[in-house]
Amino acid sequence: MTKTILIGAPVDSGQRRPGCLMGPAAFRVAGLTQAIRDLGHLVQDWGDLPIPEVDPVAHPNPAVHSLAETLYWTDALADKVDDALSEDGFPIILGGDHSLALGSVAGAAAYADRHGRPLYLIWLDAHSDFHTPITTTSGNLHGTPLAYIAGRDGFDAFPPFPAPVPPDHICLFGIRSVDPAEHAALLQHDIAINDMRTLDERGIIAPLREFLDRVRADGGMLHVSLDVDFLDPLIAPAVGTTVPGGTTFREAHLVMELLHESELVTSLDLVELNPFLDDHGMTARLMVDLVGSLMGKKVFDRPTRSK
Description:
Layout: E1 3-9, H1 23-29, H2 32-37, E2 42-48, H3 67-86, E3 90-95, H4 101-114, E4 119-124, H5 145-149, E5 170-175, H6 180-186, E6 192-195, H7 196-202, H8 205-217, E7 221-227, H9 249-262, E8 265-271, H10 282-294
Parallel strand pairs: 1-2, 1-3, 3-8, 4-5, 4-7, 5-6, 7-8
Helix pairs in contact: 3-4, 8-9, 9-10
């Protein structure tokens, strides 16, 4: 039995399309708490972190926006995730756009470093999010967390990352949209890049198990960051950054079941859900169902839905 701790992060400042701040409420309405409890786990809901009122912070790159808000979320979420892990909990961060990972992974990294354990990261996303505040042309900071986590330069405005995650501890899984600047930077880092072509050629299981075997052999903690656009937009439309060709329902559930069977996952982000763009809650319900698979729900546990 796992003590799951829900942390609401109504982060909407990492991009320009409003709506992600409604994500935490949508996950709760879609039945996340009950889905986890039905699998025999404890659930504590720590509620949503408050939306801040902060003074603007200037940045050398004039495209960067909402920097002050992002700095607030980074600090606040780092503290909350560290606190949850320190209480022997399994934190699930309910987003909110992907800039929240600047803080959530920082909190996991601080905890792991303090306990002498390596932190590993699986990035389930259509995008690599490997820009820095200096290189971004959109100014959207939801495209920067992986660069911060890996210790890239350009984050002088941010608190120093507690213990940068070595590139070979990072697995990009399912990516299919990478800017040229990000691509060039990724080639300089030893990050496991499993784009959709790799998954088409090798399948889901082999590359994922290879990475999980490395985490296990190293006695590592594993943070999973799940972006809605990891999924194909035909089954998960509630995201502002749709990219065709994402994972199918079956593939996504297989990933979650393999992660559950590994018994390695110690923290989880659910990001980029924009309920304003959803179709009668179908994306929120699918994400909740995927969390169920991560927490131990099996295919044969799923009831037949009425036609």
